[in-house]
Amino acid sequence: MSENRLKYDVVVVGLGPAGSSLVYFLRNTGLRVxxxxxxxWNGIWGKPCGDAIGxxxxxxxxxxxxxxxxxxxxVEGIDIYSPSEEIRLRVKGLxxxxxxxxxxxxxxxxxxKAGVDLYLKTQVKAPILEDGKLVGVKAKxxxxxxxxxxxxxxxxxxxxxxxxRRLPKTWPVNEPLKPTDAxxxxxxxxxxxxxxxxxxxxxxxxxxxxxxxxxxxFFPEGPSSVNVGLGVQGGRGYPSPKEIxxxxxxxxxxxxxxxxxxxxxxxxxxxxxxxxxxxxDNFLGIGDNGYTVNPVHxxxxxxxxxxxxxxxxxxxxxxxxxxxxxxxxxxKTNLDYMKGIGAKQAALDIFRIYLQSLTDExxxxxxxxxxVKADDAYTISADGELKANLGVVDKARILISMLKRPVMxxxxxxxxxxxxxxxxxxxxxxxxxxDLNKWVGKVEDLYSRFKSExxxxx
Length: 458
Fold this sequence. Notes:
458 residues, alpha/beta, D-Amino Acid Oxidase, Chain A, domain 2
C-alpha cells in the first residue's frame, strides 16, 4: 500500500464543534491547515445531543449565527421542572436548536473555500513522535497510508481522545476521564402528530429516579418535532439510558402520538471541570477532548467554540514567533480559557457534584420553598456563583423554611464558598507551565476538602 507524506502548519483531528470552529477561525490566516475526520459530509457533527446552544456563544466568538437549513428553532428560555413536575422555573435566555450537520458543514465549507484542506473518511491511527517531540499523525483512507507532518497538532476527537490517550503518560495533557465525571446520554428525535405547547421553551426535568445523576430533556425543534433524551451519571452502576428511556419516557402523554422517529443514538458526555491543561509542546486538546463542557447540563458546543477561538489566536501568535512549545504563545490558550470560562466551569463542577448527592425529596423541597428561583438558576449557569441562592435564604420567609432543614442551609453555604474558592484558584492559573503541578495539587486538595466536608465519597 502506498504512503503519502503531507506537510502542513496545523493539523486538526476531529471536525466536530471544536475542530470545525478552529479550522474556520484559521481559514484566512495564511497558515496551511488540514482538517481530518473519520466520517463523510453526512456524518459531520454526528454526536447525539440536545442540539441546543445559547445565542451568547456566537456573540462571544464571532461565529455566524444559525440560519436557513442550520436553524431548527429559536429558543426564548428554559423551563426547569422539579422531580414531581409541580414546580417549574422559567429561565429567560435566547438560543437556538440547530441542525448540527448543516451548521458544521457550513463552517467547513467556508474554511475549505479559503484554502483549508479537508480529509473526510480518513482514520487517524496514532500520533508521530520523534525524539519525544510530536511532529504529526499517521492516518489511512482509500488512497492508502498518510503521514501528516505539522508544527501543531490539535486533538478534537471528543472523549475518544484518539491522539491524547496515545501521548506519553508523563505529558499532563494525557489526563483520563473518570467514569463518575461523565454522563451516558441517549436521545430520540421525533416528529409528533400534535403541536407542542410553548415550543420556544426547552424543558429540563430534574429527577433522580428517571435520570440518576443527570436530567432528562424535552427540546422542541419546532411546533411538532422534538429532541427527547436523558443522561445518567457514569461509574455508578445505573441502568443504561436507553433502557430507562423505553421504561420511563416512551409512554409519557406528550410522546404518545408519534408520527415517526427521525433519529436515535447515544454518547458519552464529560461533565467536569476542564482538563488541567489544554496545551503541551506542539499539541492542543479542545472540546470534549479537553473537557471543555458545562458540568451541570453537559452542553459542550458553546464551550468548544470558545476553546477553539482562544486556540486560534494562540496558534497564529505561535507562528508569528516561531515557538510551538508549551512555553510559548500556545500556553495563552490555557490562560484565556481557564481564567474566564474555565473558572466558571470549575465552579459549576462543584455545584454539579453537590446536586448529584441530593435526593429528589431534597431538590423538590428546595424548589418548593423558593430556595432556588429562576433568577438564581440563571446566575449559577451564567456566572458559576451561588450568590443569589445565599441571598434569598436571608429573607425572613426563606429563613423560617430553612430552619426545618438546618443541614441543607449549612450545605448551601459550604457549596457557595467552595464555588467562590475554586473560581479564585482558576483565576490564578499558572503563567508558567513549570508551575502547573503545584497548581493542580491545590485544585485537588480543594476538591478533596469539599467532598470530605459534604460527606461525598465518590
